[in-house]
Amino acid sequence: MAINRRDFLKFSAGAGLMLTAAPTRGQAAPRGELPPDAVGILYDATLCIGCMSCMVNCKKANSEPGGALYHKETAGQIPFEYPQGDPIYDAPDNLSSKTLCVIKAYRDGDGEQPGQSEKGGPAFSFVKQHCLHCLEPACVSVCPVAALQKQPDTGIVTYNKNRCFGCRYCQIACPFGIPAYEWEKASPSVVKCQLCNHRYAQGGYSACCEFCPTGASIFGKVKDLREEAKRRLALKPGETYAYPVKRVDGDERTEQVVAEYVNHVYGLEEAGGTQYLFLAGVSFDKLGFNPRITNQVYPDFTWDYVSHVPALIGTLLVAGTALRVVTQKLEKKNNDAGKGDAS
Ligand code: SF4
Ligand code: SF4
Ligand code: SF4
């Protein structure tokens, strides 16, 4: 489809405006500090059995299609009930525009027992990946139109698709490779975990924690999650501990034998700190965490880089705006055609 002169001028003017309105660092709490009501998730890989209930319920809570035990007729329904017939089985192996949360596995040699520490020989561990809700999110800092924002009270990093014009600079900036893009859609959006912000606003909390049967994923105030994580690191392997289930501040507990932890809470310092914290029995680089991610605040890295390559931003902004114009035109054309068919 050709873009006519009017469209070209429209997108050029838009891109020009974007370029003159230079990106500003996103609004957040003072550097390195937790927002006052910061909420997050603690994932303890030594408790995770790889059941993927978190993945399935993440999809249901966010009305995303596909995924283990997915059935299109019940997608988005809560509570969830299967219709007659077999569900469709599908296990995504990575984050994508349809998968905001993914469980991956690490196995070394004969390791078979989930949560098996590498200190005891062959290791086996699951790991749950989704947005870490960084204290200083690089994605927020580079977004020229504030489509991504860190909420000043909860610290949740949210996305507003009505602001986004598709430059996808957030994808390049995120040190954890989290944001996905809906390439398959005529009018695409960036997709990532928003910590079930919509459920939290209505008194609920993250679906991946609510439906985790073992307490491997728990939701709560970040300061409580940090204390809980440090408490676990002080436990002795082999003793029993009443692990909280679903929420760190809830009454539900499960008695479990304490595994051998790697003596580190991932996310306390990495990338300037995150609101999604991890414990594991296997070193974090083996679980897929990039060892090149340091404790440095990532917007600093990004801005050092960006300030030296303004042409890169310009190119991305113009390309993103052009893409948006084209896709919106395509979508309008499809809609118009659809209306014609229906009549
Ligand atoms: S993990 Fe990536 S997408 Fe999530 S807040 Fe941090 S920079 Fe943004
Ligand atoms: S917090 Fe919500 S959106 Fe994020 S991974 Fe968990 S269920 Fe999915
Ligand atoms: S985090 Fe919980 S729900 Fe997800 S796979 Fe592990 S045990 Fe299952």
The shape is globular
Note the total helix count.
Answer: 9
Distance between the termini: 25 Å
Largest beta sheet: what is the strand line-up? Answer: 8-1-11
Number of separate strands: 11
Question: In the CATH scheme, what's the topology name of the domain at 39-130 and 193-296?
Answer: Alpha-Beta Plaits
Question: β content, as a range?
Answer: 5-15%
C-alpha-based Rg, rounded = 22 Å
CATH class of the domain at 39-130 and 193-296: Alpha Beta
Which small molecules are bound? iron/sulfur cluster
Q: What is the structural class?
A: alpha+beta
Rounded mean pLDDT score: 80
Domain 4Fe-4S ferredoxin-type: 39-68, 122-153, 155-184
Organism: Desulfobulbus propionicus (strain ATCC 33891 / DSM 2032 / VKM B-1956 / 1pr3)
Pfam families: Fer4_11
Subcellular location: Cell envelope
Describe the protein in words:
The protein has a domain at 39-130 and 193-296: Alpha-Beta Plaits (2-Layer Sandwich). The longest helix has 33 residues, at 310-342. Residues 1-28, 75-83 and 338-343 have low confidence and may be disordered. The chain is α+β, with helices and mostly antiparallel strands and 343 residues long. Strand 6 (180-181) and strand 7 (190-191) form a beta hairpin. Helix content is 29%, strand content 14%. The chain has helices at 5-20, 53-61, 138-142, 169-173, 197-200, 207-210, 222-233, 298-308, 310-342, and strands at 39-44, 102-107, 124-129, 148-150, 157-159, 180-181, 190-191, 217-221, 240-244, 253-257, 276-279.
